[in-house]
Amino acid sequence: MLEVTLAILKPHLIKNPVSMEIVQKRILNEGFKIVNSKIYRLTQEDAEKFYAEHKSKFFYNRLVTSMISGPSGIYVLAKENAIKHWRELMGPTKVYKAQFDNPHSIRGELGLSDTRNATHGSDSPESARREIEILFPEFNLDKWYKEE
Ligand code: CMP
Protein backbone atom coordinates (compact mmCIF):
# COMPACT_ATOMS: atom_id res chain seq x y z
CA MET A 1 0.00 0.00 0.00
CA LEU A 2 1.28 3.46 -0.89
CA GLU A 3 2.09 5.26 2.32
CA VAL A 4 3.67 8.53 3.44
CA THR A 5 5.96 9.19 6.36
CA LEU A 6 7.44 12.30 7.93
CA ALA A 7 11.22 12.21 8.07
CA ILE A 8 13.46 14.71 9.81
CA LEU A 9 17.20 15.05 9.30
CA LYS A 10 18.05 16.57 12.67
CA PRO A 11 20.03 19.82 13.12
CA HIS A 12 23.37 18.19 13.97
CA LEU A 13 23.16 16.06 10.82
CA ILE A 14 22.39 18.79 8.32
CA LYS A 15 25.14 20.99 9.74
CA ASN A 16 27.42 18.66 7.83
CA PRO A 17 26.63 18.94 4.08
CA VAL A 18 28.34 15.61 3.34
CA SER A 19 26.17 13.77 5.88
CA MET A 20 23.09 15.46 4.49
CA GLU A 21 23.96 14.43 0.96
CA ILE A 22 24.64 10.85 2.04
CA VAL A 23 21.20 10.60 3.63
CA GLN A 24 19.41 12.30 0.73
CA LYS A 25 21.05 9.87 -1.73
CA ARG A 26 20.00 6.99 0.47
CA ILE A 27 16.40 8.22 0.49
CA LEU A 28 16.31 8.28 -3.33
CA ASN A 29 18.28 5.05 -3.82
CA GLU A 30 15.83 3.23 -1.58
CA GLY A 31 12.96 4.23 -3.86
CA PHE A 32 11.29 6.91 -1.78
CA LYS A 33 9.64 9.79 -3.61
CA ILE A 34 10.13 13.17 -1.98
CA VAL A 35 6.61 14.59 -1.90
CA ASN A 36 7.47 17.72 0.03
CA SER A 37 10.62 19.03 1.68
CA LYS A 38 12.01 22.10 3.34
CA ILE A 39 14.89 23.28 5.44
CA TYR A 40 13.21 24.68 8.51
CA ARG A 41 14.17 25.58 12.05
CA LEU A 42 11.51 24.26 14.43
CA THR A 43 10.16 26.84 16.86
CA GLN A 44 9.81 26.00 20.55
CA GLU A 45 6.07 25.70 19.95
CA ASP A 46 6.54 23.27 17.01
CA ALA A 47 8.94 21.10 19.00
CA GLU A 48 6.70 20.99 22.08
CA LYS A 49 3.69 20.05 19.98
CA PHE A 50 5.65 17.53 17.94
CA TYR A 51 7.11 15.75 20.98
CA ALA A 52 4.11 16.20 23.33
CA GLU A 53 3.96 12.47 24.07
CA HIS A 54 7.46 12.67 25.61
CA LYS A 55 6.69 15.62 27.90
CA SER A 56 7.13 13.60 31.10
CA LYS A 57 10.38 11.90 29.99
CA PHE A 58 13.76 12.78 31.49
CA PHE A 59 15.14 13.62 28.03
CA TYR A 60 12.29 15.93 26.97
CA ASN A 61 14.00 19.30 27.62
CA ARG A 62 17.22 18.09 26.05
CA LEU A 63 15.30 16.84 23.01
CA VAL A 64 13.36 20.09 22.49
CA THR A 65 16.52 22.19 22.97
CA SER A 66 18.40 20.09 20.46
CA MET A 67 15.60 20.19 17.87
CA ILE A 68 15.35 24.00 17.94
CA SER A 69 19.13 24.53 17.94
CA GLY A 70 19.29 24.96 14.15
CA PRO A 71 17.50 24.12 10.91
CA SER A 72 16.38 20.57 10.16
CA GLY A 73 15.75 18.91 6.81
CA ILE A 74 12.07 17.95 6.82
CA TYR A 75 10.55 15.57 4.27
CA VAL A 76 7.30 13.93 3.39
CA LEU A 77 8.39 10.63 1.83
CA ALA A 78 6.16 8.25 -0.13
CA LYS A 79 6.49 4.61 -1.17
CA GLU A 80 4.99 1.22 -0.40
CA ASN A 81 5.29 0.66 3.36
CA ALA A 82 7.16 3.95 3.73
CA ILE A 83 6.86 4.06 7.53
CA LYS A 84 8.42 0.65 8.18
CA HIS A 85 11.02 1.03 5.46
CA TRP A 86 12.25 4.43 6.71
CA ARG A 87 12.39 3.17 10.32
CA GLU A 88 14.45 0.18 9.18
CA LEU A 89 16.83 2.46 7.29
CA MET A 90 17.22 4.71 10.35
CA GLY A 91 17.94 1.82 12.73
CA PRO A 92 17.19 1.75 16.48
CA THR A 93 16.49 5.00 18.39
CA LYS A 94 19.37 4.49 20.79
CA VAL A 95 22.63 5.10 19.03
CA TYR A 96 24.70 2.51 20.94
CA LYS A 97 22.09 -0.09 19.96
CA ALA A 98 22.12 1.13 16.35
CA GLN A 99 25.92 0.93 16.24
CA PHE A 100 25.88 -2.55 17.72
CA ASP A 101 22.85 -4.14 16.00
CA ASN A 102 22.84 -2.29 12.70
CA PRO A 103 26.07 -0.34 12.17
CA HIS A 104 25.20 0.54 8.56
CA SER A 105 21.89 2.12 9.49
CA ILE A 106 21.69 5.93 9.31
CA ARG A 107 21.69 6.24 13.10
CA GLY A 108 24.46 3.67 13.39
CA GLU A 109 26.62 5.69 11.01
CA LEU A 110 25.62 9.27 11.79
CA GLY A 111 24.01 9.33 15.24
CA LEU A 112 25.94 11.10 18.00
CA SER A 113 23.78 10.36 21.05
CA ASP A 114 20.27 9.16 21.93
CA THR A 115 19.02 12.74 21.55
CA ARG A 116 21.13 13.67 18.53
CA ASN A 117 20.30 10.41 16.80
CA ALA A 118 20.51 11.76 13.25
CA THR A 119 16.94 11.31 12.04
CA HIS A 120 13.30 10.97 12.97
CA GLY A 121 10.56 8.92 11.33
CA SER A 122 6.85 8.58 12.09
CA ASP A 123 5.91 5.38 13.92
CA SER A 124 2.39 4.88 12.49
CA PRO A 125 0.05 6.29 9.82
CA GLU A 126 -1.72 8.32 12.55
CA SER A 127 1.61 9.81 13.72
CA ALA A 128 2.59 10.57 10.12
CA ARG A 129 -0.65 12.49 9.59
CA ARG A 130 -0.27 14.39 12.88
CA GLU A 131 3.39 15.23 12.26
CA ILE A 132 2.76 16.35 8.67
CA GLU A 133 -0.03 18.62 9.93
CA ILE A 134 2.39 20.23 12.41
CA LEU A 135 5.32 20.75 10.07
CA PHE A 136 3.56 21.17 6.68
CA PRO A 137 0.29 22.83 7.74
CA GLU A 138 -0.40 23.90 4.15
CA PHE A 139 -0.07 20.36 2.78
CA ASN A 140 -3.37 18.57 2.14
CA LEU A 141 -2.66 14.87 2.56
CA ASP A 142 -6.18 13.75 1.70
CA LYS A 143 -6.05 15.65 -1.58
CA TRP A 144 -2.62 14.19 -2.34
CA TYR A 145 -3.89 10.60 -1.85
CA LYS A 146 -6.92 11.29 -4.07
CA GLU A 147 -4.78 12.69 -6.87
CA GLU A 148 -2.39 9.73 -6.94
P1 CMP B 1 12.84 10.68 17.52
O1 CMP B 1 12.61 9.66 16.48
O2 CMP B 1 13.04 12.08 17.12
O3 CMP B 1 11.60 10.60 18.54
C1 CMP B 1 11.71 10.80 19.92
C2 CMP B 1 13.09 11.16 20.31
O4 CMP B 1 13.36 11.13 21.70
C3 CMP B 1 14.07 10.15 19.75
O5 CMP B 1 14.13 10.26 18.36
C4 CMP B 1 15.32 10.50 20.49
O6 CMP B 1 16.01 11.58 19.90
C5 CMP B 1 14.75 10.94 21.83
N1 CMP B 1 14.98 9.86 22.81
C6 CMP B 1 14.33 8.71 22.92
N2 CMP B 1 14.81 7.98 23.95
C7 CMP B 1 15.81 8.73 24.50
C8 CMP B 1 16.67 8.53 25.57
N3 CMP B 1 16.64 7.41 26.29
N4 CMP B 1 17.57 9.50 25.86
C9 CMP B 1 17.60 10.63 25.13
N5 CMP B 1 16.79 10.87 24.08
C10 CMP B 1 15.90 9.93 23.77
Structural overview:
By secondary structure, the protein is of the alpha+beta class. The chain has one domain: Nucleoside diphosphate kinase-like domain (Alpha-Beta Plaits). Helix content is 48%, strand content 19%. The protein has 9 helices and 4 strands, in the order E-H-H-E-H-H-E-H-H-H-E-H-H. It has a 4-stranded antiparallel sheet, with helices on both faces. The longest helix has 13 residues. It is globular and about 40 Å long. The site of adenosine-3',5'-cyclic-monophosphate (CMP) has 8 residues, from loops.
Work out the strand percent.
15-25%
State the share of residues found in helices, binned by percent: 40-55%
> In total, how many beta strands?
4
Element order, helices and strands? EHHEHHEHHHEHH
CATH classification class: Alpha Beta
For the biggest β-sheet, the strand order reads 2-3-1-4
SS-derived structural category: alpha+beta
Report a brief summary of the structure.
The protein is an alpha+beta fold and 148 residues long. It is built from nine helices and four strands; from the N terminus they run E-H-H-E-H-H-E-H-H-H-E-H-H.
Defining traits:
148 residues, 4 strands, alpha+beta, 19% strand, Alpha-Beta Plaits, binds adenosine-3',5'-cyclic-monophosphate, 9 helices
